[in-house]
Amino acid sequence: MGHDHDHSHDDVPHYVLELEDSADSREDIPCPVCDSWRWVPLYEGVGLRGNKLKLVACSNCSHFFITPRPTLEVFERFYADDSYFHLCADFSEVSLEDKMAQFEDDAFWKKRFEHGQRLYENHLSDVLGPDDLVFDFGCGDGAWLGGLQQASGCAIDGEEISPIYAEVIRRKFGVDIFVGPAEGLIDDIVEKHRAKAKVVIVSGSLQHMLDPMRCLRAAREMLTQDGRLYICNWSIFDHFMASYGGAARRLVGEIVSWEHLHYFHELAFKYMVERAGFEILSYAPESIVRPMHMEIVAKKTTADAPAPDPEEVAAVIHRVRAFESATIADRLRIR
Ligand SMILES: [Zn+2]
């Protein structure tokens, strides 16, 4: 998001500067999906927001992640002030005042509820009813929850990093959600909803999480035996690197940024969900519910998840490099 946003140096978020200044604000990590320390570098250099970083691919499961990564303390400081919300508001070229004003507008909500309605119609119409609860990690302004509530009469709850959105939800739906980075709240969330949620949503949020597996395992604990997990994310190949919706093809160095710690693709995305204790019911590289995202619907299982075949892992790593070469060749030809 916001890659074309014009920051003067004074506007560089303070957490970015801290990352440059202090070794204490970063830590080397094993693969957040499979815990392996074996990885190969994909990119090392200047990232999207102007700071240095390194993207690697896990040699065991093929997950792409940033290491060293910022500590939870740095993340909490970044999200505690409103710089992240401003980044998002700036991205859509509206002022913060205008963005807040739209929450008073019925036409805005009608449009926003469509995500929840599509989710209901495509995956949940025979699952979700008025006696059920839906929980949304990274629920934003609550629009998905609102759409699902409208479609099914279900109860709703969620977690959101931005206190501004949490206030919007309190006013609109009368629900006090969990406010802050999921990492610091997960134990309380599980405690409140253990085995009670019919649906858990993690839509476009896992890339921000220090530990996405912890979130998925928490979702598993929260779900009823017949519950459903719904997750969606950009695919690094199909939505970041490819020419998509008229956007130019991008190199890895033009994509990576500190607040996106993970870059997903089908092989590791599926493995991540299975390793967290789920059976995948459906996978779509292009979601109908949230266009320009890949999605998974899953249910709980106790079956073991074998790691991806080493040949498939090698093919994914080869694919990134081939993609980069092709993009560079394209650009040279244009000139
Ligand atoms: Zn791994």
Keywords:
single chain, 335 residues, alpha/beta, Rossmann fold, seven-stranded mixed β-sheet, four-stranded antiparallel β-sheet, binds zinc ion, transferase, methyltransferase, Methyltransferase domain-containing protein, SAM-dependent_MTases_sf
Low-confidence stretches: 1-9
**Helix-and-strand structural type:** alpha/beta
Binned strand content? 15-25%
Query: Care to count the β-strands?
Result: 13
Organism: Nocardia uniformis
Pfam families: Methyltransf_23
Protein name: Methyltransferase domain-containing protein
Keywords: Methyltransferase, Transferase
What does this molecule look like?
One of its GO terms (biological process) is methylation. This is Methyltransferase domain-containing protein. InterPro entries: SAM-dependent_MTases_sf (IPR029063). Keywords: Methyltransferase, Transferase. GO terms for molecular function: methyltransferase activity. It is a single chain. Helix 6 (114-124) crosses helix 7. The chain has helices at residues 14-21, 72-80, 83-91, 96-101, 106-112, 114-124, 143-152, 163-173, 182-193, 212-222, 236-241, 266-275, 310-334; strands at residues 26-27, 39-46, 52-58, 64-66, 69-70, 133-137, 155-160, 178-179, 197-203, 223-233, 262-263, 278-284, 294-300. Helix 7 (143-152) links the parallel strand 6 (133-137) and strand 7 (155-160). The protein has 13 helices and 13 strands. With 335 residues, it is α/β, with parallel strands linked by helices. The two termini are 28 Å apart. Strands 8-7-6-9-10-13-12 form a seven-stranded mixed β-sheet, sandwiched between helices. A four-stranded antiparallel β-sheet has the order 2-3-4-11, covered by helices on one side. A two-stranded antiparallel sheet has the order 1-5. The protein has one domain (96-334): Vaccinia Virus protein VP39 (Rossmann fold), CATH 3.40.50.150. Bound molecules: zinc ion. The site of zinc ion (ZN) has 8 residues, from loops.
